[in-house]
Amino acid sequence: MTWSDDDWQNATIRLHPQMRTEPMRESLIQAIEEFTQFKINRLVNVSSLGAGVH
């Protein structure tokens, strides 16, 4: 599927409740406004997620 401009303008994202923090929100908005990558690893400690990749 190819997204149209209208698709992008009307897209909605939903975050897991544990990720609904102000730093996460600010980082996402900044990435969207600047057309840059959103680097989730800067805000989420992977080792705190429990089961890791072995």
Structural summary, described in words:
- This protein is elongated.
- It has helices at 5-9, 22-34.
- With 54 residues, it is an all-alpha fold.
- The protein is built from two helices and no strands.
- It has a domain at 14-42.
Task: List the main descriptive attributes of the protein structure presented here.
elongated; mainly alpha; 54 residues
Question: What are the SSEs and their pairings?
Answer:
Layout lengths: L4 H5 L12 H13 L20
Please report the number of helical segments.
2
Main beta-sheet annotation: none
List the secondary-structure elements in sequence, H or E: HH
Distance between the termini: 34 Å
Mean pLDDT metric:
84
Q: Report the principal-axis shape.
A: elongated
Determine Rg (CA atoms, Å). Answer: 14 Å
Backbone structural class: mainly alpha
